[in-house]
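A brief tutorial aside. Many learners find it easier to grasp structure tokens once they have seen a single protein encoded end to end. The record that follows does exactly this for RNase III domain-containing protein. Read the sequence first, then the structure, and try to relate runs of similar tokens to stretches of the chain.
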Amino acid sequence: MTHPSFSGENNRALSILGLYAIETSISLHCLERNIEMSPKELSRKVKEISEVGTCAIDGTRLGLDKIVRVSTKTNSTVPSVVCGAFRAVFGAIGVDAGNADDAGEVFWNVNHHGCGGGGASAM
């Protein structure tokens, strides 16, 4: 795991891909549980579950703050650093698997924030 403060060769692109894989997975997960969820509620849940603070909590729980390489002037425990590393993990899974579905599946295995229930399921 390499933060941009450490090197020009870093995990920023993987972090962007990971964010999109996470957001897609959240959307799908929530709609599977409640197909009648309003667009506003879906957007709120996606934002809540994928925000920097939330993914930093999950990344810290995984110990990513201890393995991400940062410059001597950068604190590896800052939420934005941990979150970037967390998202990059899912980007890397997506690249390795050749699809975002596998990244989303792993995300739900390490994420402890749900979409809530209620309503009819599309599945």
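Self-check: Confidence is low (pLDDT under 50) at residues 118-123. If you spotted this yourself, you are ready for the next section.
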